[in-house]
Amino acid sequence: MSIPPQHPQYPQQAPYPQYPQYPPPWQSSPAGAPAGPAYGVPAGLANIGARFGARVLDVIFWYIGYFVLAIPVMMWIDADGGAPAVTVLMAWLVTSFVLYFALPVWKFGSTLGKRICGIRVVRRESAAPMGFWRAAGREAFWLVAVVVPGLGLLNPLWCCWDRPYQQCLHDKVADSMAVVR
Predict the structure, then answer these.
(1) Distance (Å, rounded) from C-alpha 101 to C-alpha 96?
(2) How far apart are CA 24 and CA 7, in angstroms?
(3) Residue 140 DSSP label
(4) Taking residues 2-15, what's their average pLDDT?
């Protein structure tokens, strides 16, 4: 019986470093869980600065589109158009809001401002695209927040301390989250 040939021993490779495991986006952290590595910011969430920039761009783009078509109606109001002119202006306000905000979030996951900033909006529990009514409710909360004192400021700032998904109040209403495109 012969002895098998011995091969030279190579040094062992160092083990891979252990990275903190984040919960999947469709699972929420336990109630009252401390903010630590296990419940930090999940990978893929949109940056707070990018979200703010996207909202600023969206408001600018929406105002431009709204006022281009609203100026003739405003002139009609000034020329004593009365209640019908005001009704047309309010209808255009709601229609333009739905056309610019809710419709693109439903169909494409983002508005023009969100696309420029590399953000899309998805459902929190499944990361799937949002339905129309969920997207409309999310954006309608912005209108409510502007009218209610304090809520207009609290809504966008909420994502600064919300963990783990950095959701603003309008995200919580629609159970959505903003992720990197």
Answers:
(1) 8
(2) 45
(3) H
(4) 70
